[in-house]
Amino acid sequence: MGRILGLDLGGRRIGVAVSDPQAFLAQGHSVLECQGRKKDLEAVAQLAGKLEVEAIVVGHPLLMDGRAGAQARQARRFASLLAKKTGLSVVLWDERLSTVEMERMMVEAGLRRQERREKIDAATAQLILQSYLDFRAQQTGRNH
Predict the structure, then answer these.
(1) From the centroid of its chain, how far is CA 48?
(2) Which of 60, 97, 57 is nearest to 75 (CA)?
(3) Which burial class, exposed, middle or buried, applies to 108 when counting CB atoms under 10 A from its CB (0-12, 13-18, 19+)?
(4) Which among 81, 107, 100, 103 has a CA at the least distance from the CA of 92?
């Protein structure tokens, strides 16, 4: 086992989360400002190397009916290019409603709009990554 990086791709920002070394728990890490695909790929690849991750999970924003829209196709392309650039396994993970769910949780926690805006991307990446880690643990029979 090793650390896993989680990404929530957005139009302006990329939310980043990382797991613990045993790949049980995800935590929000940072937010990268988008600067174009090439620079974004380089920034994520550098971060993956710095954090010594063994795999990357990219949120896959499917439409509610399960079809791939424009954002999902962009996520697939980014994931494919990232796999080539890093040589790491890059997994697409269904992220339908993850941002909506995180926003709801932040409102319930009493965070003001400005606080939510500052934290939503990394928190959503954390939610996506934790969902993947939980699924993987269930599939392999590993308990937390």
Answers:
(1) 12
(2) 60
(3) exposed
(4) 81
Name the percent of the chain lying above pLDDT 70.
92
Listed residue (127, 142, 139, 141) closest to 19, CA to CA: 127
CA pair distance 67, 122, nearest whole angstrom: 25
When mean pLDDT is compared over 49-58, 115-124, 135-144, the highest value belongs to 49-58
- Cβ(79)–Cβ(58) under 8 Å? yes
Q: What is the C-alpha separation between 80 and 125, in angstroms, rounded?
A: 18
| 4-140: CATH number | 3.30.420.140
Q: Nearest 10 degrees: CA dihedral of 115, 39, 19, 94? A: 80
pLDDT in tens, 63-110: 777 778 788 899 999 999 999 999 999 999 988 766 667 777 778 888
Instruction: Determine the pLDDT at residue 142.
Output: 66
